Amino acid sequence: MIAKIKQDSMGSYPKKRSLDEAGRDSILSLTAGYFASQHPEIIAAYVFGSFARQEAFGDLDVAALIAARLAEPLKFELHWNGI
């Protein structure tokens, strides 16, 4: 269900998508469920960017609050297939 979105041969990213409120709510629910089940160290998350502004989007920007201080900074990207 998770895959990295790669640039196409022209060097551009996939086209932006538009969703109705129900579609956006579904993505937020799936994302929250994923974090809850796979990353219990995340205690809060904040969605920002074009998705949060209810505009056409190419990705979902999420800032996460981690329960404990990490020895090294953590950065990861998740990309959902089929959006």
What structural class do the secondary elements suggest?
A: alpha+beta
Bin the strand percentage: 15-25%
Number of domains: 1
Query: Distance between the terminal alpha carbons, to the nearest Å?
Result: 10 Å
Report strand order across the widest sheet: 1-2
Describe the structure concisely for a colleague:
The protein is α+β, with helices and mostly antiparallel strands and 83 residues long. The chain has one helix spanning 21-38; strands at 42-48, 61-66. It has one domain (1-83).
Question: How would you sum up this structure, described in words?
Answer:
The protein is an alpha+beta fold and 83 residues long. The chain has one domain. It is 22% helix and 16% strand. The chain has one helix at residues 21-38; strands at residues 42-48, 61-66. It has a two-stranded antiparallel ribbon. The longest helix is centred in the middle third of the chain and has 18 residues, at 21-38. The radius of gyration is 14 Å and the shape is globular. The termini are close together.
Keywords:
83 residues; 2 strands; disordered N terminus; alpha+beta; 1 helix; globular; two-stranded antiparallel ribbon; single chain
Please write out the topology.
Elements: H1 21-38, E1 42-48, E2 61-66
Antiparallel strand pairs: 1-2
